[in-house]
Amino acid sequence: MFDILNLALPYFGVVFIGFACGKWKKLPESGLAWMNFFLLYVSLPALMFNLIARTPFAELSNPPFLVATTLATMLTFSLALLLGKLIGRLSLREATMAGLAGGYGNIGYMGPGLALSVLGAKAAAPTALFALGVTVALRPFERLPWEVPVLTLVKLVVHPLLSFGLMLLFGPFAQPWAATAVLMAALPPALNVFVIARQHDSWIEPASSAVLIGTFASVVTLTTVMWLIQSGRLVFP
User: Fold this and answer.
1) What does the pLDDT look like over 101-156, one tens digit per residue?
2) Which residues have C-beta within 8 Å of that of residue 208, sequence separation ≥ 6?
3) At what angle do helices 175-185 and 204-230 cross, to 10 degrees?
4) Nearest residue to 187 via CA among 81, 112, 80
5) Which has the higher per-residue pLDDT, 186 or 28?
6) Residue 88 contacts residue 81 (beta carbons within 8 Å)
7) pTM for this structure?
8) How far apart are CA 225 and CA 222, in angstroms?
9) Is the N or C terminus of the chain more exposed, i.e. has fewer CB atoms within 10 Å?
10) Which residues 6+ apart lie within 8 Å of 36 measured at CB?
């Protein structure tokens, strides 16, 4: 239990602090503009460049890995779109937003820091996690559309399971590669799902709910994946 808490608190604790601050101060979302700009266009690209610069070029050319990870995301997106279209009786535009909620993970804010901390050097991203918490707190949440829990299950459970299966099918891959693919697949819906829904004026409230519910539900699911990786229980041959 303590091992699980030690994994979860450094990451989700910062998210919850940001969420509490966003609810408490009620500052306009425009106040995050420069912080988000710094994260997305300065700090995270510098982090990625540093990692890529130290990685041998031969390791960057891995077509089977690219095919497996892309296929996992495409299948998850298609499943979520189909569920939204057939079961939720959504229009094609709305079902496409539902597909994004089921297949588009929060790899920008959460991905790099979590991957590095779980699988490599301790290059955590507290600023990104805090900004994530504040932004989630500012999302409107009035009701929970019934399709959102289903899409949350697709994103947090089906996506990582598909990724795990495809790593075995297309592999073998080195443990850090395969574990990273599963970890990234286990991330909650990206904040951009709400942004895209708002830009297209379609499925806005459910998209907001999906981001909020998915982020909080991932406290359990994502922490479980992190624990499986760090404890050595999730091993790829």
Assistant:
1) 999 888 877 777 777 777 765 474 566 666 666 666 666 666 777 889 999 999 99
2) 139, 140, 141, 194, 197
3) 150
4) 112
5) 186
6) no
7) 0.82
8) 5
9) N
10) 131
